[in-house]
Amino acid sequence: MTLVVRELVIEIGGSRVVDGVSFEVPSGARLGIIGESGSGKSLTALAVMGLLPHGARATGSVTWNGREILGLPDRELAAIRGSEIGMVFQEPQTALNPIRRVGGQIAEAARIHRGVRGPEARALAERLAAAVGLPDPAGIVRRYPHQLSGGQRQRVGIAAVLAAEPSLIIADEPTTALDVTVQKGILELLASIVADRGASLVFITHDLAVLAQVATHAVVLERGRVVEEGAVADLLSAPTHPVTQGLLRDSKATLWRRHD
To answer: Which protein family is named in the record (predicted)?
Structure first.
C-alpha cells in the first residue's frame, strides 16, 4: 500500500503552518520527515491521520492505496486509523490511559478492528509485549502505565500499534524523551519491526543521526515547506540546504556530547 501526499497545506488562524508539502511512501519504504521545532513535521503526520487540532484546516491531497483520505468523515477515517495506518506518539505517558491496565490498551486496536476479546486478547497482549522486548510479559500487561519506565511505556505504545497489524507506521519523535541507551533499543525495535513485517515507516525527528538508523530517504522541512529531499546517506554526507547543514551540525554535536 502506498501513501501519497500532494501539495498539503495546513492553516491555523489564517496562517499557513504547512505550505505545499509533497512526498510518497511506497509499500515497504522507510521515509523520514525531519526539521527543526515548528517546521510542520508533526502537523503533517497528524493531517495524514485525520487528527489535526481544533481550528486547523488542511487542503491538498492525501491518498492511501489510491483512495483520497484527506477530509474523510471521522467514522470512515477510524476504519483506516489503527487497522491500516498506526501512529506511535512522542510521549507515551499522555498517549496511554492512566487508569487502564497495559494489556487492555495493547489489545485495544485488535478488539476494535479484528474482534479479538477475552482470553485471546490477553494472550495477544502478552505476545506483543514479548515481541517488543518488555520483560515478564504476563506480569507487565497487568500493570498500569505509571508503574512502567519511559522506555517501557514507549514499547507498550508500539505494541498497541502492532496489534492491528497496520501496513504503515508513523512514529512521531518516539525517542525524544528517552535516554541514549533506551533510545537505541527503541530505534532497533522499530527497524526490525518494519523489516520483519514488511510494513512501511514514516519517522519524524529533528535528529539526522537518529534518522539514519531507521530511514533510507527523507524530506527536510523549514517553516512548513520542503527545502531538501533525498537519500539519508546523501543528506548526511553532502547536504545542500543550510537547514539540513544545520541539522547535521546539531546531530554531530549531540553525538560528541554523548561520547565525551
So the answer is: Belongs to the ABC transporter superfamily.
Burial 169-192 (b: 16+ CB within 10 A, else e): bbbbbbbebbeeebbebbbebbbe
Point out the residues of the chain with pLDDT beneath 50: 256-257, 259-260
3-class DSSP state of 10: strand
Nearest to 103 by CA among 62, 147, 44, 64: 147
d(CA 174, CA 158): 9
Q: The domain 1-84+177-260 is classified under which CATH number: 3.40.50.300, 1.20.1050.40, 3.10.580.10, 1.10.2020.10? A: 3.40.50.300
* Other beta carbons less than 10 A from residue 106's beta carbon: 32
C-alpha 174/C-alpha 92 separation (Å) is 8
Q: Can you tell me the distance from the alpha carbon of 19 to that of 85, in angstroms, rounded to the nearest whole number? A: 23
Cell of 104: 487492555
CA distance 259 to 66: 46
